[in-house]
Amino acid sequence: MEGIFGNLNTWFVLAQVLGVITIIFEFASYQIKDKTKYFRTTGIGSFFWMTMFFSIGMATGMATQISLMVAASYSTIRNLVFWRIFQKNTPKSKELGLNFLLVMIGVALIAGTLAVINSPPEVRWLHILGMIAALSFVIGQYLPGVHYVRITVTLYAIAVFFTQTPINILYGDFRWNIMGMAIETAKIVSVIVFYIRYSKNPKQSSLQFAKP
Question: What is the pTM of this model?
Fold first, then answer.
């Protein structure tokens, strides 16, 4: 028994370490204006996010973490592909990026619809809002300028709070994902810090929604 609990604790501690690393990358990514660097940073963060869920699964059981690992893998692939697309920045890569974006929207729509269908009826409307926020974020990441991604990630992070925490209590499950809440909080705080830093730097040019 001691060996089993020792192994469980090791995976649990590793999950917390990976969660902290994820927070660092998530916070750093929304301090970056350049799209190429942003997607590279958040893509690496998503990879650590995926491994965090894997570690939690090893500690508590994979069955409860599979859907989260799939979502994190989807995020990792999406961000790293967009990184390469923005890095090349050619007409062909932009066309590929638009097609890839449409595929990613389709995947997110299917996954979101399944999540809505399988959610408790009394809180289904919150899951619908979560799906809309997630789709908006996927699109907002790709749009030019610095505002869209920060506006949509803030809405997405707020939606995650409502769809992952209060809902549990509504149908009798009192588990709280503290690390997940910390990761979403890091996104919101990073956006706030970004605008505070920018507003206090008079040498910076005015922020625009899109490049001329």
Answer: 0.81
